[in-house]
Amino acid sequence: MPAKIQITDLTFARRLLIIAAFGLSNLTALAYDDKHPPIDPEIQQCLDCHGNYRYTLTDPEFGETVVLKMYDELRIDPIEYLTAAHGKFICTDCHSPDYETHPHPISVKFEYQNTCLDCHANDEHSLKFNFDKIEEEFQLSIHGDHFIENFSCWSCHNPHTYRLTTREGGRIADIVAFNNAMCLECHGDISHYAVLIERQLTHMLSKHEWLPNQSLHFRKIRCIDCHAAVHEDLLVAHHVLPASESVRNCVECHSTNSILMGSLYKHKTVERRNRFGFFNAEITTDAYIIGANRNFYFNVASAVVFGLVIIGIAIHAILRYIHFRQRR
Known about the structure:
By secondary structure, the chain is mostly helical. The chain contains 14 helices and 4 strands.
C-alpha cells in the first residue's frame, strides 16, 4: 500500500510540474527571442555540455572519447538560464575558473558554495529585497540548518533558473505554478526528498484531504500561503512553519481581512476595482474567493432586502393578529 501511495504522489507532482513548465515555456521563449542577445561565448562553452542531455568526454592522456548522459541536476536549459535572475552573469562569476578545464578537476567539487548574502549583503541595489530579513526568517524556518542538514537557498531556488515571478507581477496562475513547482520538486519526488532527510515522504493528497475542493486550492494558491508566517517587510514569506502550525481555518483566507492580501496578492498595491465597491479588489482581478470578494453595494442591498423581508413578515403577523382579535 505505501508503494502505491508513493507512485500516486509522484504522478500528482509531475502533473503539476508539467502544468508549471507549460505555462511558463511560452513566456520564457518570447522573452528570449525579443529581449536577449546571443549567448556569451564563455557561457556557451559551458552550455555545450551542460545545456544538452548528452555530452562528449575526452581522456586528455589517451585521447579516447565517450558519450555520457548529463544528469538532470547538472543540466541547464539555455533559455531558462538567460531569462533567470542571474542570467546576465558568466559561469566563472560564481564558479571557480578551474571549471574551464575539461574534464573538470576533482578539486572544484570542494569549492565554497556562495550564499545570497555573499553578493547581496552590501549591495544598494539589493536593499529592496531585504536579504538580511530573509536570512533571519529562513533560520527560524523548518528548512533551517538546525532541522535539515546542508539545506540552503539553492535547495529551493536553483541559481541557474530562478526568476522573480512574484516581484515582476504577471498572472497569478503563473506565479502559483512556478512557486508550487519548487515545493513539489522535493515534497512530490522521493528521489529528491531522500537526499535531504531520512524520513518517509508525506502523502500530499491524504494530508490535505480536509481541504474542501482540494484541486482548486492547489491550482489557485501557493503552498507557502498556508505554510509560512507572513512578514510585513518581505514580499515572499520564508519562515516555513511546521505542519501543525499551518493555516487550517478557512476564515483566515475567506474574509475581507484575508491573509492572502499580505502574501500572494501583496505585490498588487493598486485596487483597480475599488471604485465599484469591491473589498480586496486586487483579488477580484484574478479569482473569486468566497468571503474575500465581497462588494459594499451588494452588502447594503442584501441588508436592505433582508430588512424589508423581516418588516413584511412583521406587518403580516400584526395584521393577522388584528384580524384574529376582531373575529373574536
